[in-house]
Design a protein that fits this description.
Elements lengths: L3 E6 L5 E6 L4 E3 L9 H8 L7 H8 L18
Antiparallel strand pairs: 1-2, 2-3
């Protein structure tokens, strides 16, 4: 297993793959993250790719609860 060091974005800001800690580029049509929002949006995606208000909202997330619940609908896999 390899750790992801960054998420690759195209010119429109859509995720198109990842770069591993070993420098390997893996292209993808869909990128999912099981990391925290802080790691995903503040560490893996370039800061300039996201609005400052969004990054501020990520900074304000309270991680003190040991439980996280995520509800979502996925139309394509």
């Amino acid at each position: 297993m390899q750790e992801v060091s960054s998420i690759c974005l195209n010119g429109d800001g859509h995720a198109i793959g990842v770069v591993t800690s070993e420098g390997r580029e893996i292209k993808a049509t869909l990128v999912l993250s099981n990391a925290t929002p802080y790691v995903t949006f503040k560490k893996l995606i370039p800061k300039e790719a996201l609005p400052e208000t969004f990054l501020d909202a990520i900074d304000s997330i309270n991680y003190t609860s040991p439980v996280t619940k995520i509800n979502g609908i996925m139309t394509l896999l």
